[in-house]
Each structure stands twice: as structure tokens, then as C-alpha cells.
Design goal:
By secondary structure, the protein is mostly helical. Helices cover 57% and strands 2% of the residues. Helix 8 packs antiparallel against helix 9, helix 8 crosses helix 10 and helix 10 runs antiparallel to helix 12. The protein starts with 15 loop residues before the first strand and ends in a 10-residue tail after the last helix. It binds fe (ii) ion (FE2) (2 copies). One fe (ii) ion binds next to helix 8 and helix 9.
Amino acid sequence: MAAEMALVKPITKFNTINTTTARLSNRRLPFTVRMSAATTTPPTSKPSKKPQKQGIKESLLTPRFYTTDFDEMETLFNTEINKNLNEAEFEALLQEFKTDYNQTHFVRNKEFKEAADKIQGPLRQIFVEFLERSCTAEFSGFLLYKELGRRLKKTNPVVAEIFSLMSRDEARHAGFLNKGLSDFNLALDLGFLTKARKYTFFKPKFIFYATYLSEKIGYWRYITIYRHLKTNPEFICYPIFKYFENWCQDENRHGDFFSALMKAQPQFLNDWKAKLWSRFFCLSVYVTMYLNDCQRTDFYEGIGLNTKEFDMHVIIEVINWLYLTLPLPLLD
Ligand SMILES: [Fe+2]
Ligand SMILES: [Fe+2]
């Protein structure tokens, strides 16, 4: 996952629940898990050897962690119950994920730290926030996909393995962003977040809508930034942007997988309720993205983008793409 999922709660059935009730498995986290308080410490200051731990600032627009009804998921992906599941298509997708195109892509170099040291003033803080939020959003995808991979293993091993491989991708993305934070003398305490943060419950139908949208939005955000910086390299203030081209292909594959999942669940796409819900989710995801980005125009201007134009471009591209899968989202 790359973008942040819809945050508006449509009905009271949507609950925020604690980790213990989310029934998430114990998992080994692939990341460094410390949060330094030295967010605003300039590099000329001597960094603390024992940084104070610090949580992320929670707000309505903070990226959330999600859980769902895993029993219903098991039913939806049972091939004996759901005859719409195209096993050949999922097998082909699995082979694609197994290829692991980005296995050697996320390799850092000394440019990262040098670039981070040059980012000063207000941009430094906003840059740190960008890394924190992106890392949290990617990690949110890791947690959800990892659990789906575990829970669907018996019911549908192919779909389960794809979820596990997507969690591999998201772990890689989150880990790379967290390494970026270390250039700013920080590290998100992801182990602590996993246990301490509340999980938002979405029914499977809404998980499908929201994750599909967030993956496709993530793809378009990354590729738009990458293409912009390729033609305007003077705005590349930090090397992470150079990785976005291959990175966004992961998000694109994730989105394509959700597209196949939803086609196998026509009850979530074809009636008038589904049309209304999918439009609602589109709208709430777009509004969330727009509000988030408008609060951070300094970041987008810092890399030479006009925030509103950037968001409009992403939204239009996603809407065009969504016509292929979701029922008439927002345009008719
Ligand atoms: Fe991702
Ligand atoms: Fe993703």
C-alpha cells in the first residue's frame, strides 16, 4: 500500500478496535523500531546516542491500521463456494509476484545521508513528516496483507500466497522509508505501533474498495512525482525519489490483484448499493488525499510541484483507470 486509505466512517458498523480484538498474529518485524526525539535537531548538533522513543502524532488524517472480518474473507475466497474465482488468473498473478522484480531495487547509498544533512529549515520537518506518514501507510499495508496471507492459507493457498508476497513488498517499502528516517536521526517504532495503535475495522467489501483505491492512487502519486523530477532534476533534494519508478510498479501489481479479487466478487460491484458505496469510497479517499496534501504544500512546493495540480492529476488518472473495475465511480 502506498496511499492512505479512506478515513471517513460511513456507518456506525465501522468500529475502531484494539489490537487484541483484531486477532492479528504475532509477527516478526523486519525493521529497526526506535523513534528518536531528534526530529528537529540539525545535523551540526551531536545526535543523542540513546534517543527518546516517540510515537507518531495522531490526528483524523493520520494513516490508520486496518483489520477486517477474516471469517467472511475465508468464505469469499473459498473456491467451492465462490465459482467466480478465476484460478488461472490468480495463478498467473502469483507467478508475477514470485518473480519479485524489485528484489534488488531498494539498495541505499551514501547520497541519502548527505542529502538529508543539506535539507534544513522548515523543509526538514515537513520532509521528516512525509517519511513518517509514508512509512506508516506502507506498514499498515504490510500488517493487513500479512494477516490475510495467514488466514486464507487453508481456504485458498494461491490467494493467500499472493497476500503474503504483497506483505513482503510493503515491508520492503516501509523498511526503506524507515531507513530514510535514520538519515534524519530518527526511526519509527513500528513494533510499538503494531501493539499500541488502534485498528480500524472495515468489512471485506470496504477493505476491497479502500485498498484497491489506495494502491492505484499510490501508483499514480509515485509515478507522477518520478516523472516530474526526471524532467526537473534540480528539485531532487533527496535520492528516495529516484526509486519511485520501480517502486510504483509494486503498487500497480497490488492494485491489479485487487482488481482481480473484486471481479471475483460481483456482488460488491453490480447492484445499486455497491455503486453508491464505491462512489462514497472514491470520494472519501480523494478528499482525504486532498486535505492531507493541502496541509503539506511546503513539501510539494519544495520538490517543485503545485499541490492542487498534482492532486487533480492523480485523481483524474485514477478515475480513468477505475472505470475498468469499479462501477461508474463518481463520473456519471
Ligand atoms: Fe507499498
Ligand atoms: Fe501496495
